TrEMBL record:
Name of this chain's protein: Endonuclease/exonuclease/phosphatase domain-containing protein
Keywords: Membrane, Transmembrane, Transmembrane helix
Transmembrane segments: 52-72
Alphabetical list of PANTHER family matching this protein: ENDONUCLEASE_EXONUCLEASE_PHOSPHATASE DOMAIN-CONTAINING PROTEIN (PTHR35218:SF9), RNASE H DOMAIN-CONTAINING PROTEIN (PTHR35218)
Superkingdom assignment: Eukaryota
Length: 120
């Protein structure tokens, strides 16, 4: 299974969308995690249609900061998903039938200690 993670610092930036599309085209990841999207679910849903992924899970930003999203395609089996403002946790079954957790985390400089307390 191929997974790509990227702190995009704003999913709506002029160069961001072409860079993400090129990365997806070159690497063909099964899962794409982006942190610091700074975009709402509505924007990310429109972005998903351009990315050729069928599913997504979005954590909306708080104001103009944060925001997380995971895109995945049909070959990935997601069993459960839960989240907080700084993480997305996904229980998955891979092609071999093994079950495992994929945990996506983005720690903000502003509220780092409270986010670490949540994760621990």
């Amino acid at each position: 299974m191929r997974i790509t993670s990227w702190n995009c610092r704003g999913l709506g930036g002029f160069w961001t969308i072409p860079q993400v599309k090129e990365m997806v085209h070159d690497r063909s990841p099964d899962l794409v995690f982006s942190s610091e999207t700074k975009q709402t679910r509505y924007f990310v849903d429109a972005f998903l249609k351009k990315m050729f992924y069928n599913y997504m899970y979005v954590v909306d930003p708080v104001g103009l900061a944060g925001g997380l999203v995971v895109f995945w395609n049909d070959s990935s089996m997601i069993l459960s998903v839960c989240s907080s403002e700084c993480s997305i946790q996904m229980q998955m079954r891979d092609g071999d039938g093994d079950v495992w957790w994929y945990i996506c985390v983005h720690i903000s400089c502003d509220v780092r200690s409270s986010q670490f307390d949540y994760l621990v």
